[in-house]
Design a protein that fits this description.
single chain; 188 residues; mainly alpha; two-stranded antiparallel ribbon; 6 helices; 2 strands; elongated
């Protein structure tokens, strides 16, 4: 049988025996010695710190897949350029928690049912109203983000971008990761 021009050429050597193939494999040598282990730990720690710093700066190579791409960067910058009620939700919850823990005498009404002090009722009403406003803002934000993304990046997939933006808008500004690249009030 002759070899035609269409067939690829053979490898030109016999397949190695299993015992020969295992000898050629390189195994990772364990790190021996206290100094070597300590140096390896320090190098790994330095690499983790450098990666974390790059992630917080927003470098594309250090971002996880969910945060990569120009569309996600645009959404992050849009969210970071505006203020929303959602970013104040956590501090408001903390204040509500403190107000509800204030010890007060509970009086009873004519039927013998306990009456809740007015500060606790008002603080809980504030908490639920902020939650409702935050959800309504998230719905409006979802629509706005999709509209802006389609205008700036025609044909880009918008699935999940609204939720991505809403979740970022509910985080306190200084707690966001990666760190905001634009100041609040800047035009995008």
């Amino acid at each position: 049988m002759t070899q035609s021009a269409e067939q690829p050429s053979k490898k030109g050597r016999p397949t190695p025996k299993r015992s020969e193939a295992t000898k050629k494999r390189q195994t990772l040598a364990p790190i021996r010695g206290k100094e070597n282990k300590k140096r390896a730990r320090e190098e790994a720690k330095a690499a983790r710190i450098a990666t974390r710093a790059a992630y917080m700066r927003g470098e594309e190579s250090a971002l996880p897949l969910r945060d990569r791409g120009p569309v996600k960067k645009f959404v992050r910058d849009y969210i970071d350029s505006r203020r929303s009620i959602g970013e104040f939700f956590l501090p408001i919850i903390f204040v509500v928690l403190l107000l509800t823990m204030i010890p007060t005498k509970t009086s009873t009404n004519s039927e013998g049912l306990p009456q809740v002090p007015m500060t606790q009722v008002i603080s809980i009403a504030i908490m639920y109203s902020v939650l409702l406003i935050s959800i309504l803002d998230g719905i409006r934000l979802n629509r706005k983000i999709k509209k802006l993304v389609l205008a700036k990046f025609p044909g880009a997939a918008t699935k999940g971008l609204g939720m991505y933006g809403f979740l970022r808008s509910t985080q306190m500004r200084r707690m966001r990761a990666p760190k905001p690249q634009v100041k609040a009030g800047d035009k995008i």
